[in-house]
Design goal:
Largest sheet: 6 strands, parallel
CATH superfamily of one domain: HAD superfamily/HAD-like
Shape: globular
CATH architecture of one domain: 3-Layer(aba) Sandwich
């Protein structure tokens, strides 16, 4: 049985923070992004409004800032090792995130088969955000379906990893899910729960339960 592992980024692969927060810190805009994050978490604004506001906030963003934010982020340990093992088993791994595509796609360097984020213009910005390219929680399922088609699988072959309400729709759409340092409302929906800072341990919950296979 071939599996497709679908990973959220913010708060899941990245411990206790999010790509927009790390990008904003590079520009000294921690307070400003904190207010946007608060408004988004309180559902005062949606993904499109958040992205347009973040785009305006990042007017001075450069590729060097993006790389520094990525390299300095508090990632869970073992991400590359887990993705290598997934590949060696003949399975697939992908990242689906509401965060900017220019950040999410850097995870292809670590061995993800695919990485999908909200479509932003290239950095430094010379164009506005096209809001039709901004992902919503429901779009995570749409992207997952496209990936299943690409890899010759279906939803029954998927495992989702996430931490927050933006992952709930995807958790409800697939048979196996891992709540990673998650909020209680999402943990209640998950088939597995992990608290900690090593993706190898979160992955072990699924891999060790796979018939006939032992996780390394």
């Amino acid at each position: 049985m071939t599996l497709l592992h679908l990973f959220d980024l913010d708060g899941t692969l990245m411990y206790g923070t999010a790509a927009p927060v790390e990008l904003s810190r590079q520009l000294g805009l921690g307070a400003e992004i904190a207010e946007l994050e608060r408004a988004f978490g309180a559902r005062e604004i949606g993904p499109q409004e958040f992205s347009v506001a973040a785009h305006a906030l990042w007017a001075e963003l450069t590729p060097a800032h993006v790389r520094a934010a990525f390299d300095g982020a508090p990632w869970l340990a073992g991400i590359q090792e887990v993705w290598q093992e997934i590949r060696e088993r003949g399975d697939y791994c992908a990242v689906i995130s509401l965060s900017p595509s220019f950040f999410v796609e850097l995870l292809l360097e670590w061995g993800a088969h695919a990485a999908h984020g909200s479509v932003f213009p290239e950095v430094p910005f010379t164009r506005p955000v096209d809001v039709t390219g901004i992902l919503t929680p429901k779009d995570k399922v749409t992207v997952a379906d496209r990936l299943c088609s690409r890899f010759g699988l279906d939803r029954a072959d998927c495992v989702a990893y996430g931490d927050s309400a933006t992952d709930a729709v995807l958790f409800d759409a697939v048979p196996v899910s891992v709540a990673v340092n998650a909020r209680p409302a999402l943990a209640e929906r998950a088939t597995h729960i992990y608290e900690g800072r090593d993706l190898r341990d979160a992955y072990q919950l699924v891999a060790s339960a796979r018939p006939g296979v032992e996780a390394s």
